[in-house]
Amino acid sequence: xxxxxxxxxxxxxxxxxxxxxxxxxxxxxxxxxxxxxxxxxxxxxxxxxxxxxxxxxxxxxxxxxxxxxxx
Length: 71
Known about the structure:
Number of domains: 1
Radius of gyration: 15 Å
Oligomer: single chain
Mean pLDDT: 80
Strand content: 5-15%
């Protein structure tokens, strides 16, 4: 989970440009032998993002939902 930071290391909005920065949620997975298709691995990663509630953590830290990206 990558929280938005400015060049000065502050959270949230870039004070120079006034741009609200994006938070990015990335879940890395290795395809298991029993997973025949890569799509199964992708679905497992997306399920884990939901189960771990990463978006809720970012929302609680004040990051707007429209600025949170899950990959």
